[in-house]
Amino acid sequence: MTHSPPPSTNEQEPWFLTLLTLALGFVIPGAGHISIGQLGRGLVFGITILTVFFGGMLIGGVQSIGPVDQPIWLMTQKLAFGPYLIASFLARSQPNLLDFFPKLRDVGSVYCGIAGMLNMLVLFDVFVRMHGQRKPGPSGDAETPKTGAGS
Amino acid sequence: MNMLLAYTPFIDTLEQGIRGADAMQLFFVIPLVLAISIIYKATKVADLRDLPKHAAIMTGQIFMVLIVSAIALYLVVSLVIRHGPPQ
Questions:
Q1: Residue A145: which of B25, B46, B58 has the nearest Cβ?
Q2: What does the DSSP 8-state code read for residue A93?
Q3: pTM score of the predicted model
Q4: Does residue B74 or residue A5 have the better pLDDT?
Q5: Tens of pLDDT, residues A82-121
Q6: Comparing C-alpha atoms, which of A18, A43, A40, A21 is closest to residue A32?
Q7: Please, which residues have CB within 8 angstroms of residue B60's CB and are 6 or more apart in sequence?
Q8: Residues 6+ apart with CB under 8 A from A146
Q9: Is A60 close to B41, i.e. CB distance below 8 A?
């Protein structure tokens, strides 16, 4: 699964490898970066996104997963597909929970939805790292982004 | 006490484990902003050793904007309450 880091030349990755990497990152947040050899970045992405997603579940419980009255968050939660599958399985096994707290459920839905959107940002990043034109840095570092690292 | 015993993390809401969590919902924005900053800056920085500094700066910037927006909205609402809506 692991292959060499993104080339600094115009050499392009095969399309199926790109799709495989994106699918991997879609199911397991951060795994796309790890598969292209960026272990540290992939771990940062994976740990952060999973923390946000399951932090949302900790706050809102399983009721915050797949809120039918909030279609935006319902869709965005699915962008972190692996965690969403696990959470959906948990939610289905716990029907008719009592003591409903709508505010916390909403906060949990937002957390899980933003985790999904962050995963989409990470997928764009892994695509750019595989196919984008990144200028080499002063030391020849091909990871130097085009827009610079300033805040 | 019964509610604490019945609390199951990730299944029940946090209110059932920590009384008063429902009233502190605004504070839940802090870890969320921090996570957004970490992810965004991790896509930008060339060297991951710079990530904590850049993420902290971005977190501070977001909170500054949130605080300034809150003050501005508070002033607008105060003016509207005092003088009534514009005719």
A1: B46
A2: T
A3: 0.82
A4: B74
A5: 999 999 998 888 766 665 788 889 999 999 999 999 999 9
A6: A21
A7: none
A8: A132, A133, A134, A135
A9: no
